[in-house]
Amino acid sequence: MSLTYDEWSHKLDQAYVMASAAEVHGLIVGLLSAGVEPVAEQMLPVLHDFLNDGQALGAALKTDVIALIADSVRQLKLNDFSFSLLRPGDDDSLPERLEAMIEWTQAFLVGFAIVQTDLSLVSTDVREALDQLTDVTKIDIYTTDDGNAEENDEAYFLVLEHIRIMVLTCFTEVGQKFSSRAVSNKTLH
Description:
This protein has helices at 5-14, 21-33, 40-52, 59-78, 94-115, 124-136, 149-175. Helix 2 (21-33) packs parallel to helix 5 and helix 5 (94-115) runs antiparallel to helix 6. The protein is mostly helical. The two termini are 29 Å apart.
């Protein structure tokens, strides 16, 4: 990623965009994984609806978002597991990192669902990946765990790795097969 999570957060705040950096990236990757071409004209209207109440993004932020789309599709296509979620740094608190991970996953699922409305068309592996990603969104970030900080961090990284694998499954099996589909910018509420 060219910008860090904190840099993205600052830019979104400056542009009065209510979505988090995790949500922006999750939505982009969800759309790409569902088969949307990485073309600004197709993706930006959906991002405007989701991120900015249908309002266009300012020129500087739009340029950064287009770069994030290009970087995301490049990482996904490498298929060498270099793909990573845009998320807070490892020094941020665990609840903050968990919240961003859940926001990212929820936005991914929204992006995927906007395009792939009939899951009977996707493989069992993809349906299972989507079910497991849905389970991630149910994690209670405020549960006090008996484990120590090191064990909690280890569990967090295992879940992150699992999310990456599920996303790559969706992108490989759906995103690359359906990538000529146009996306409608129907807002889901």
